[in-house]
Structures are given as C-alpha cells and as structure tokens.
Amino acid sequence: MTMSVQEMRDAAPLQLSERAKGIPLALSIYINQIVYDLRRRGADVTTLSLGEAFFDIPVFDFKKIDAVKGAHYSDSQGIPELRRKIADFYRKHYGAAVDPDKELLITAGSKPAIFMCMQATLNPGDEVAIHEPAWLSYPEQARLVGAIPKFIPFDRPVSDFVNYYGPRTRMVIINNPNNPAGRVYSRVDLQVLYREARQRGIYVMVDEAYSDFVVDEPFVSLAEIAPDKDGAIIVNSLSKNMGISGWRVGYVITAPPLLREVLKLNQHIITCASSILLYYLAHYFDQITAVTLPQVREVVEKRARVGANIDRVGLKRLPGASTFYFFVSIGDFPGTSLDFAIHMLMEHNIAVVPGSAYGASTERFIRLSIGTESEERIADALALIRDRIGNPVFDASRSRERLAEIGIAPFKPGAAS
Q1: Which H/E stretch holds residue 234?
Q2: 3-state DSSP of 322-387
Q3: For the residues 396-413, what does the mean pLDDT come to?
Q4: The pLDDT value given to residue 416
Q5: Among residues 365, 232, 243, 357, which one has the least CA distance to residue 310?
Q6: Measured between alpha carbons, how far is 141 from 171 in angstroms, rounded to an integer?
Q7: What is the rounded CA–CA span in Å between residue 387 and residue 316?
C-alpha cells in the first residue's frame, strides 16, 4: 500500500550525514563534467583538465582469459598471479622487495586503497599532515574517517615538515611524483620524511600513482627506503601507469599487520576488484608494459617541450619534470582560480583545474594536463591563458550566466573546506 500525498507531507524528515554534507564535490570532476556537457552540445573543448594520458593500447585476445572464472568473485586480496607480477615489477624497476602474499593487496582503484588505509590507521580527531599541492581527495577522505587534515604549504621543504606535526598527527601524505606539479621527491627527501615520521609514530603514505612517469632517473619508491614497510604505506595504480583509468585497478603495499586490517575493509566494502580485468592484466602484464612504457617516455618528452613553451610565452610554473601536469600561476588575475577556470571554459572552451582544489597555499595556480591534447592545441590554449592573466578587466557574471544556461549549478565548497 502506497502512502498518500498527505502522509508523505506529514512524514518525519529523512537525515543526510553531516560528514557527507561537509565535503564538496571533487572540483576536477566538476570541471570535467562541464566539459562532457559542452561536448554533448557540440562544443570543441581543449581539455587540459583530464587526469590521464591517452595511450595507444592494443586490445589483446580476451579468448585466452578464463571467462567463467572472470565472471565470478576472486581473491579479495587480488589474484596471486597479478600480485606476483606487480611485486616483480617493483623489484626489477624500483629495486624494492615486495612480498606478494603478505605485503600487497589489489583493489578497485587507488582511491579506495587510500581511504581504506586511512580507515585502518586513523581514529576520530587524529591529524593528517598533507603537503600541498595535494591531490584533492586526500583531505576529504581524511575528513570522512573523522580525522583532521593539516596542510603543509607548497614551498616548504621536507626538512620543515616536522614543524607541522603535532601531538595528534598520525599520518603524513605525499604524492610522488606529484599531481599537480610534477615534482619528484628525492631519495634524501624520502629518507628524511620516513625517519622523522617513524620516530614520532606517524605513518608515511606515499601515493606513487605516477611512478612510471619518472624516466630520466631511477624512481625511488618508499618500499625501497623502508624495506620492512614498518609505518610505510605505498599506494599505486595500474589504471594511471597503464593508461587504463576506467578499469579502476589499484593496490597498496604495506607491512603485514596493517595489510590484514585493510584486507578486512576490502572484504566488507569492495569484496574484490573486477575479476575478468585482473585475469586479463595478469595474463598480459608484460605485453601491456612493453607497449605503455615507451609511450610514457613520449608523454614526458612532450611535457618537456610544452614546459619550454610555457616558459617562452612568459607563464610561471612550479618546478617539476614528471607526470603530464603543470601547475601554472595566474599572477595578478583579479578573480579566484575557480573564476579563472570557469571563465576559460565558458568563454574560450579551454578546460583547466583551479589551484584551490589542491590546497589553500595554491589558490593562485591552475593545473594543466597535457596528456590528451596535441601540442598545437596546447600552444593555442597557452597563448589565450597568458592573455587572460594579463588582462586586468574581468567580469564573472557572463560565465555564471552561461553555466546556468546549460543547467550547471555553481561549485560550492564543503562546509569543512
């Protein structure tokens, strides 16, 4: 029996959680959703906002994969064949020993891996130190587990991090190589970071999702710096490094006691990553990396050329030589970085991500991703970005009106931001 209209009106209100209401939409995804909407309307958008690179990857024969096994649940820790492949990759490429049975868990992307590691280590009221520019989900995931994010400004060296630790600090997070600046933390950086944190009982989480994009020097993994993984949490992503972001396959490397706790969470939240994709990746791991690693080098070389062009046109950027991102200053632009991004998208069909997504100290920047556009289109966009920064006249009302015309609500920061 259905409720009457009057009964519905008289019913008690339903609750929404304060934690969920207290975080904002992911600002990069908000921008990209506008891109998708504009493209459906026929707009030609220069997309410098996507957090991925497009690789030319052949589709290998799925007939060689056991479709029956792939259609069902598989190991919650990730199938052993793929765990061994990942561990072997870390040994060969990064000189880091990883036990595939006791120190590695595969899940449905690195995002849930990060979140579950926070769930397994943090209690309400604990603090998480995050070095800016920081991937935008770190602070929101910390808030969702009841922790308090504390930010380290982008211009602070690793040796200064201890000045931002307090009695409730339980975790420090860096992204190496960094999204959005492309910075690579050195071996000395990682040694200092780990030693100072471990002495204070602070976990070090290093998100290594762009590890393959370090091509001119050996990548130093935290798994090498802390071979026993005690107090070390390494998160990585096949989705990013293999250019298959839609497949959502990530993993965590850590000491066995913590891994066991993360496994319990994975069983209750995810069960297992997509079985058919895990079997596919295990079977074709070597063939895929043989195709993608040369293309990774091409992307990094393209980044160097674009970087030279950024310097040539007079734009300022944070230093970095890895990933496919740049973090570019908006100088004396009279609005916020969000105003700048919305204006460029609605008035010039150029999509960038506001620096405010990556921390308070990086509000005067924008992130540019060069992984999906040609160098010619990127060069044209850079010229328009430079001209917009140099123009002191700005009125945000037109861009807001255009947003409303296509049915997009203005972005609202979360209550906790």
Answers
A1: strand 232-237
A2: CCCEEEEECCCCCCCHHHHHHHHHHHHCEECEEHHHHCHHHCCEEEEECCCCCHHHHHHHHHHHHH
A3: 88
A4: 46
A5: 365
A6: 13
A7: 13
Cα 226 to the chain's mean position, in Å?
Answer: 23
Token pair 């496994």 is found at 263
Phi, psi of 268 (to 5 degrees): -85, -25
Distance CA 88, CA 162 (A): 34
Q: Show Cβ contacts of residue 109 under 8 Å, excluding neighbours closer than 6 positions.
A: 237, 239, 248, 249, 250, 273
Does this model's pTM top 0.85?
A: yes
Q: What angle do CA 262, 268, 272 make, to 5 degrees?
A: 80
Question: pLDDT (tens digit, 9 = 90+) per residue, 5-18?
Answer: 898 899 999 999 99
Instruction: Give 91's Cβ-side CA count (13 Å radius).
Output: 10
Residue 173 DSSP code: E
Q: Which helix (H) or strand (E) holds 152?
A: strand 148-152
Instruction: State the chain's mean pLDDT as an integer.
Output: 94
All residues at 6 or more sequence positions from 72 whose CB lies less than 8 Å from its CB, including other chains: 275
User: In which residue are the tokens 């043989």 written?
Assistant: 290
Residue 305: how many CA atoms within 13 Å on its side-chain side? 13
Contacts of 240 (CB under 8 A, 6+ apart): 52, 110, 209, 210
Tokens of 333: 């632009």
308 vs 328: CA distance, rounded Å? 13
Position 242 scores a pLDDT of 81
User: Residue 331 contacts by C-beta under 8 Å, 6 or more apart in sequence?
Assistant: 316, 364, 389, 390
Beta strands at 169-175 and 127-131: parallel, antiparallel or unpaired: parallel
167: left (phi over 0), alpha (psi -120 to 50) or beta: alpha
SS3 string, 266-308, reads HHHHCCCCCHHHHHHHHHHHHHHHHHHHHHHHHHHHHHHHHHH
What's the sign of the alpha-carbon dihedral 272, 276, 277, 278?
A: positive
ω before 177 within 30° of 0 (cis)?
yes
**Which residue in 214, 218, 183 sits closest to 92, CA to CA?**
218
